[in-house]
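Might I ask for a little of your time on a matter of protein folding? The record follows directly beneath this note:
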Amino acid sequence: MSQDPVFVRKAFSSIAGRYVLTNHVLSLGVDILWRRRVASMVKGFGAGRILDIACGSGDLAAEIIKKIPQAEVIAADFCAPMLEQARRRGLPMLLVADGMQLPFEESSFDALTVGYGLRNMASWDGALRELSRVLKPGGYLLVLDFSLPQGILRAPYRFYLHRILPMLGGWLTGNREAYDYLSDSIERFPSGEEMCSLMKANGFAEAESIPLWGGISSIYVGRKEG
């Protein structure tokens, strides 16, 4: 599956200034707790050098720095206006870089994180292979992203996703098109075991899916062989 990087960059550039507020409103603030959980997991892996890819306004990278102040945390995104928001928050190591072609040597990092960004990359397979390339053997990739819940939550969540979320997001940012894209991209993005299989096919020896709030979001943990 391919996404249009030109559209994605333009969409995120247009909503950069209101991105954090809109995320918190649309998730009722629960996205903060989800990022904290990912940061705690990274700390548990004992990672010393960490790359947060598609960092956006720096929310996840900031949580990781709070949890592991002694670690070297680099935050990268291909959208410069989003990185400017991260810079205003005081994140120390920021880099304009595309997750599809990272400017790092092989086996450069102990852990990688992607918070709500893998879904927007031009190729999910290609991005995972590139992430595996810069990860050390035995290192971990943690992907936090939206997913579709199963069971009784599925129908009301899809109604919210396609009817309510684009309206609220458009009202808060002035760009409804960006949130129509968000809704559609969540529908297309693989989740659960499908995502685990995708990770295993692209450089990760192990993969685990951890659903959050009934599967509205999920954390995917992949370990590179070694």
